[in-house]
Design a protein that fits this description.
The complex is a heterodimer.
Chain A (H helix, E strand, L loop, with lengths): L1 E9 L6 H12 L11 E8 L4 H16 L5 E8 L5
Antiparallel strand pairs in A: 1-2, 1-3
Chain B lengths: L2 E6 L6 H10 L3 E6 L10 E4 L21 H9 L4 E4 L1 H9 L5 E3 L7 E9 L15 E8 L3 E3 L2 H9 L3 E5 L10 E5 L5 E4 L17 H8 L1 H4 L5
Parallel strand pairs in B: 1-2, 1-3, 3-4, 4-11
Antiparallel strand pairs in B: 5-8, 6-7, 6-9, 9-10, 10-11
Classes of the chains: A alpha+beta, B alpha/beta.
Chain lengths: 85, 226
C-alpha cells in the first residue's frame, strides 16, 4: 500500500482568477515580494500497489480521465515515503 | 414526433424549465435519472443547467462519468440531437463531445442577468428558424462560463462554422465572445445562456422559443438519422 499525493494546477496560459485575487490581497498586506500566486488542488489517496510502473499507469490513467481536465490543467504526483496501513 | 430525454443529475436545477420548453414547443419529453444506462426510445437528449454533483472537482466532471453518460455518447455518435445548456455545456466539454473547457468568469463573480447575443450561424439544425446576425436575449446565470480553448481549436471552430452564438458584450472573458458551439457533425450543441428561460415576452424575452421549435422539428426538417 502506498500513499499518493496528486497536485493539479491550471496550465500556465489559463487565467487563474483565484490566484489574482490572492495576489491583490497579499499586496494589501504590504507583501510586494510575493507575485504570481497560482491556486491548485491536491488529492491524497492510498493505492494497493507497490510496483512504480503499475502505479504510474493507474495514476496517469485516472488523472487524464477524471482527476484533471488536461484541456486546462496539468498534474503531477509523488509517492509519499512511508507505507500506510 | 421527437422525444427528448431530460437528464436529471443530483444538483440539476433547470430540468423543469427545459422539460417545459420542449413540451411547449410541441415535442415530447421525459425525465431520465443519471443512474440509468439506456436512452432507448428517445430521439435526443437535453442536459439541463444547475450544479450537478455540487460542482465537485470541476463543473461537470462528476456528471461526465455518471452511468447515463455512455448512452449520451452513443446518441451523439448516432447523429441524434444532444443539447447541453449552462452546466449541460460544461458536462459536454468534460465528456469530450465538445472541444474546449469552461473556466471561472474573468471577473470571478457569478453573473445572473439578461444577455444580448448574436446568432452567428443560422445554418445549423438548432438555429434554422433564426436568421444570421439576429440579436436575441437569453438570460445567463453562471460562475464558470468563460469559454477556453487553444489557438488550434479556436481556428478549427471558426473554419468549420461551429460557433453559433456570441455575446454582444462579453460578460465572462470567453474566447472570441463565444456563448455557444456545436460539434463538427452538427448534432451536439452546448451553450451557456438559457433559451429555456426565454419563452414568454411577458417575462422579458421569447427569443428562446424558436430553438425548441427547431428541436421539435429536427427530423421533419432534416434528413432522418434513423
Amino acid at each position: 500500500m502506498k500513499k499518493i499525493e496528486l497536485i493539479i494546477t491550471l496550465q500556465e496560459q489559463v487565467l487563474d482568477t483565484q490566484g489574482e485575487a490572492l495576489d491583490r490581497a497579499v499586496k494589501d498586506f504590504g507583501h510586494d515580494e510575493i507575485s504570481n500566486i497560482r491556486v491548485g488542488k491536491v488529492l491524497y489517496f492510498d493505492i494497493d500497489e507497490s510496483e512504480p510502473a503499475k502505479i504510474d499507469e493507474i495514476v496517469n490513467s485516472l488523472s487524464e480521465r477524471l482527476f484533471a481536465n488536461t484541456v486546462i490543467e496539468t498534474y503531477e504526483y509523488k509517492i509519499l515515503d512511508g507505507e500506510t496501513v | 414526433m421527437m422525444r427528448y430525454a431530460v437528464i436529471r443529475f443530483p444538483g440539476s436545477n433547470c430540468d423543469r424549465d427545459l422539460y417545459n420548453a420542449a413540451v411547449k414547443a410541441g415535442a415530447e419529453a421525459e425525465y431520465v435519472d443519471y443512474r440509468e444506462t439506456s436512452l432507448e426510445g428517445f430521439d435526443g437528449v437535453l442536459i439541463p443547467g444547475g450544479f450537478s454533483f455540487g460542482d465537485y472537482l470541476r463543473t461537470g466532471a462528476m456528471a461526465s462519468v455518471a452511468p447515463i453518460t455512455k448512452a449520451v455518447i452513443r446518441m451523439a455518435d448516432e447523429g441524434r440531437p444532444v443539447v447541453g445548456i449552462c452546466n449541460g455545456f460544461q458536462i459536454l466539454t468534460e465528456i469530450g463531445l465538445l472541444p474546449g473547457a469552461l473556466i471561472r468568469n474573468t471577473g470571478h463573480t457569478f453573473i445572473s442577468r439578461d444577455a444580448s447575443l448574436k446568432i452567428v450561424n443560422d445554418k445549423t439544425k438548432f438555429t434554422k428558424s433564426y436568421s444570421k446576425d439576429e440579436d436575441v436575449i437569453f438570460p445567463i446565470a453562471h460562475g464558470e462560463g468563460c469559454y477556453f480553448c487553444t489557438d488550434e481549436v479556436y481556428a478549427d471552430l471558426k473554419d468549420n462554422d461551429q460557433i453559433i452564438l456570441k455575446y454582444n458584450e462579453n460578460p465572462n472573458g470567453s474566447r472570441g465572445d463565444i456563448a455557444g458551439i456545436i460539434n463538427k457533425k452538427g448534432n451536439v450543441l452546448g451553450m451557456m445562456p438559457h433559451p429555456e428561460r426565454a419563452l414568454e415576452s411577458i417575462l422579458g424575452s421569447r427569443d428562446g422559443f424558436k430553438l425548441f421549435e427547431d428541436l421539435k422539428s429536427w427530423e421533419e426538417n432534416h434528413e432522418t438519422v434513423r
